[in-house]
Amino acid sequence: MTRNWRTLRMRRSQTGLCNPMAHDAHALPDHCPNCGAAVHGPYCAQCGQETVHELPTLREFAHEYLHHYVAADGKLLPTLKLLLLKPGQLTLEYLAGRRQRYVKPLSLYVTFSFLFFLFLSLTSSSTPDHFVYVDNRPVAHPEQHLAGLAAAKADPDERKVLGALASAVSELQDPDKLAEFREHLLHRLPYAIFALMPIFAAMCALVYRRRRQNYGMHVLFTLHLNAFIFAVFLLGLIPAVQAHAAWAASVIFLYLVVALKRVHGGRWWPQLARGMLLGSCYVILSSVAIGAAMAASAGVQWHLH
């Protein structure tokens, strides 16, 4: 009798009957929580979603990502090879319908963007040098210098602008306030840069308007281009590479020209001219986005204080 009872308890524990929480977590539901279809196994026959759900852990997230992109499908390495070594080829592969073997464009961009801003937030945690250069000379107290310039101006509007700038610089001299400003900036900057991509894609469509190409093609090209840019920026965070960070702009420009030539065809000189135009527009748009993010971050900080 005792042996039969132990066997029954063992079976109940395996099926989750002795633990209501385990039963709820591991037992098959009657209907799929996603589409409502009847459930007959671990996967829904209607939508393909898993029918048994558990709260995921960070380790499970990392395992799922590595298993999906590296081990199972082997998507990550072929994607990185084309993205880094063959500009524009990843866009052509997607347009040709060969999509299953590579990481999706938006996922690729989000991954590199997330990694860059994550490591940027970690590497920028140290207290920076507060010297500001004015006329190629370091100024230890730039707020005093700006206040002096404001007092010397006769125009009241110029005095007001310089006074506000001096106040903002004075606020940022405090390490705690500077860290708070950096936190707000790093929170807003990814969204500002992401918002630029449809605009840059529209510029690409305008430059190639005679070819009557679909706007989605230019969005796809922009996603791959920005993924490469964030990959370059990510490498630039390495201390051994920071000494050569000035080459990043040249590398990105050459990548843009070669990618344009590979995707759109044509002669080199027209693609070089288009690359210079698009590159200049991209720098201007990025500066505006960064400036807007800085202004918004400073505004939030002043409002809080």
Automatic annotation (TrEMBL):
May I ask which residue range the UniProt record assigns to the signal sequence?
none
Segments crossing the lipid bilayer: 106-124, 189-208, 215-238, 244-263, 275-300
**Annotated keywords:** Membrane, Transmembrane, Transmembrane helix
What is this protein's record name?
A: DUF3667 domain-containing protein
Transmembrane listed as a keyword: yes
Q: Which Pfam families match?
A: DUF3667
